[in-house]
Amino acid sequence: xxxxxxxxxxxxxxxxxxxxxxxARQLLAALGLAGHQVEVVSHLxxxxxxPDVPAEQEVAAKEERARISAMWRQTGAPDLWFSYHPYxxxxxxxxxxxxxxxxxxxxxxxxxYSRRRDIGGxxxxxxxxxxxIRQAAVNICLTDRDRAGLYEAVPEARLERLQPFIxxxxxxxxxxxxxxxxxxxxxxxxxxxxxxxxxCLAAVLAGLLDEAWTLDVVGDGPARSEVADAFSAIPPERLxxxxxxxxxxxxAVLSSASLYLWPGHGEAYGLSYLEAQAAGLPTIAENVAGxxxxxxxxxxxxxVPGGDLASYRRAIRQLLQEDERRGRMSLAAxxxxxxxxSLEAASQRLDAILRDxxxxx
Length: 361
Hints:
Elements: E1 2-6, H1 19-33, E2 37-40, H2 55-75, E3 80-84, H3 95-102, E4 106-109, H4 123-135, E5 138-141, H5 144-153, E6 159-161, H6 169-172, E7 182-186, H7 193-206, E8 214-218, H8 224-230, E9 239-243, H9 247-255, E10 259-261, H10 271-278, E11 283-286, E12 301-304, H11 309-321, H12 323-340, H13 343-358
Helix pairs in contact: 1-13, 7-11, 10-12
């Protein structure tokens, strides 16, 4: 099929790395692997931090619809429109209208809706999300939490599940060589949930100074100084600050560690968890948000109650001390991702969903 791909929050070609950008790129790869001709049809960013959408953003959306419509008159319309991650701060202002005009199926992936966002001036944006969910030939949900939110908003909507996934090919080439006591975390340093998770992790580790461990910290961002302050109670020789690293270097750090630590406050799911497990790292996180979608509790890692620092600390201590258990979890974590959460598996699932709704053979 010929597919028009659009990510209203952040284009796959955006200069700033993030989980959203990575998943957009992986969806493109999965669609391409299935044999589809996929084009990123627009790079227009629809994000607005407040309900008061700037007038120029509305004008830009109108101009972009006109541009794409004119292009389709010359080249022909695609077989369907694929919208990745529309939500109340970044609704899709292009796809629903253009899909209706061209008479093609409209598809969403990781569309998000929560009734509590109806207040505070977001009602119009929320209405646009609901209309998109209702119009969609299918809404592909990456978490049960998103699925429940969409079902509550539009019970008649067609919903399908696609498990979060990564490209495991680079990880298949790795030979994990874990070093006892080597811990790792990979996360951007920005205000909000990321900083909250860093502060939680620092508090947990400050109570484990009687154990032998060193933490590799991979990441950078505007909250770098606040993150450093959070770890100020920990002896500096316990911490290795790598900053932002290219993907290959991140994999090298992961493959030499023995545990992956990240509380996961506010994580939709967290692709870094899958990458760590693909490198053979048992993962310890809080059972919050969508973390349970990517960490198999008791199998590939340990999930503790949200906000329970004592339980988090106890889980780390156990896996630091229990080499045999940690080894079993390491093997299980690697199998979990390489066998169940691969790009190839996602491509097959995604292809089946889209062919069904489009009527393609």
